[in-house]
Amino acid sequence: MKIKVTSVFVDDQERAHQFYTEVLGFIKKTDIPAGDFKWLTVVSPEDPEGVELLLEPNENPAAKTYQNTIYEEGIPTTSFAVDDIQKEYERLKNAGVKFTTEPTEVGPVTFAIFDDTCGNLIQISQV
């Protein structure tokens, strides 16, 4: 068994697509109409056949409550691995990304947390 798709709830699929591709650097994998929304996934250009991240609309009231509560608690929705966290932090900061936590070393891991503009906090980490 392996993970094929995981998701983050987003409040605007088009804005999320723009942020995750143009700012973070992921590439669109799947874009299939599904009623008022899309089955819209992105993948890492380093592993285009790897795990897909579904940019899932938060239209369900339970999803909105979950997303808002996690955000307000300062908890990242997901975490992305980076090779050089300081370099990635500077790149994203220069692109206008707002960080809630600057690179912080905790034991063997250094992490930072940013706002994805779509209702989520995202963690990047380097081991």
Automatic annotation (TrEMBL):
Entries under PROSITE patterns matching the protein: VOC
Record-annotated VOC domain positions: 2-127
Pfam families found in the cross-reference section: Glyoxalase
Cross-referenced InterPro entries: Glyas_Bleomycin-R_OHBP_Dase, Glyas_Fos-R_dOase_dom, VOC_core
Segments passing through the bilayer: none
UniProt-recorded name of the protein: VOC family protein
